[in-house]
Amino acid sequence: MKLFDLSLSTPYLSLDPIFYHEVSTTPLRNPRLVSVNAEAAKMLGLDPEKLSARELEELLNGTRLLPGSRPYAMCYAGHQFGYYVPRLGDGRAINLGVVGGWNLQLKGSGQTLYSRQGDGRAVLRSSIREYLMSEAMHGLGIPTSRALALIGSDEKVAREKWEKGAIVLRMAPSWIRFGSFEYFFHTNRHRELESLADFLIAESFPHLIGAEDAYIKMYAEIVKRTAEMIAHWQSVGFNHGVMNTDNMSAIGITIDYGPFAFMDTFESGYICNHTDTQGRYSYDNQPRIGYWNLERFAHALSPLIPHEKLQRELERYGTYFTTKLMELLRAKLGLDTPHDNDGDLLRTLFTVMENGRIDMTPFFRTLSRYDGKREPLLALSLAPNQLNEWLDRYDERLVTNTSSIDERHERMLRTNPKYVLKNYMLQEAIDQAENDNFSLVNDLLMLAQSPYDEHMLFERYSLPTPLNLKNLKLSCSS
Ligand code: AMP
Ligand code: MG
């Protein structure tokens, strides 16, 4: 199928107009295609070979609408850094409609009713980051929004310095957020709250349509999905950075990529968002914040569901989180059956990684070929003695494994990525793209989508982050 043969529907617009605002996009000057994601194109039923750059530019720049498209911005609220903000909404995202279960959304295509002081724009830097990172998360098996394509432009956008405007076409099965529910709860619109819950069930939890206690069952699933999503983040050293409730998806996928980072060397208190001076959204706080956010969500649902029922489901969060995290981490160590002491073995490993300033991605990748020879692993640590002791324990533990060494290696190489997109890599792609060279953006897209493959040409990106490029301080204005 060709791009403009896609036909959209706009079910969200069947809700009361208080839920959204219909809006037109404001095009960028001299748009040009930076990258198109063939995988996402195929998911929409498009033939990637037949995509034309001109048509993609027209679609992303909003100068040509797909059949059935009726652009709108969604209204929501949210707790930002612990404080309730009564009205946020899509200030720079404009929804186009739905096709094949994917809600298409342009980010950076101009002001909406909800823009407040903002200009409705997104800069090339942050758009490249979102575009690549959502694909990288998907490549690692982590629930996330996706992206079809990215355009740059000559439009000047004022941030800490002048930058150029860009637009990403993002897609998700739903863009409803915890904060969407909070908006209707805090404005005392309980009828609309119920409509939103019904809408979300029809859109994303269809197996619950007409079910007894459908609302609490929906909440229970959201608790589980959120806990498991955050367990995934922890297992790969991902720090989201802005876990405000307006950035928490009601279907438990990772959304709204801002100052995120994959850690360079493992640091439990790592904070990627340098405006987060208290470390509210630090790496090791993420699981707790997930719970806190789900508590706010439960509060917003309280007119629909008795408090005790919500609380009972919320209390399962810790178990869901720990069970998933243990499953993921056991797999990273190549352990095929659970063992009572695994929790302690893993906790010790994380302490050893932190003390030895170990970069976890190359560490787990190297461990995936471990056959008793320790030098390649010890070379990754500044505290090799501690690692050596831990490896003694690991050796003992491996004795109880049932699979062969080869089987373990093979499984671990499919579990422990060779490549994650660290900030320094994204920054290299951004620096080149700002000079209109988009080849590294496209190379990183390829690495993002096949992170377990060898890609010998990009070997350097699989090594520990060079010292001078660690913990890049990134601007949060995006
Ligand atoms: P974020 O933390 O980036 O997800 O954004 C929080 C809120 O601010 C959302 O309601 C966004 O739509 C809004 N926002 C962020 N940047 C802009 C901008 N440049 N123009 C308009 N609204 C914005
Ligand atoms: Mg947001």
Measured distance between first and last alpha carbons: 34 Å
Tally the helices.
Answer: 16
**Broad shape:** globular
- Which ligands, by name, code or SMILES, are bound? adenosine monophosphate, magnesium ion
- Helical proportion, percent range: 40-55%
User: Overall pLDDT, averaged?
Assistant: 97
Please give the radius of gyration in angstroms.
23 Å
Low-confidence stretches: none
User: Approximately how much beta-strand content do the residues carry?
Assistant: 5-15%
**How many strand elements?**
13
Q: Please trace the helix and strand order, writing H or E for each element.
A: EEHHEEEEEEHEEEHHHEEHHHHHHHHHH
Main sheet properties: 7 strands, antiparallel
Structural class: alpha+beta
Please characterize this protein's 3D structure:
This protein has about 475 residues and is α+β, with helices and mostly antiparallel strands. Among the domains are: about 170 residues, no CATH class; about 150 residues, no CATH class. The chain has 16 helices and 13 strands. Helix 3 packs across helix 15 and helix 7 runs antiparallel to helix 8. The two termini are about 35 Å apart. The mean pLDDT is about 95. The structure holds adenosine monophosphate (AMP) and magnesium ion. The site of magnesium ion has 3 residues, from loops. Magnesium ion binds next to loops.
Please supply descriptive tags for the structure shown above.
seven-stranded antiparallel β-sheet, binds magnesium ion, alpha+beta, 478 residues, binds adenosine monophosphate, single chain, globular
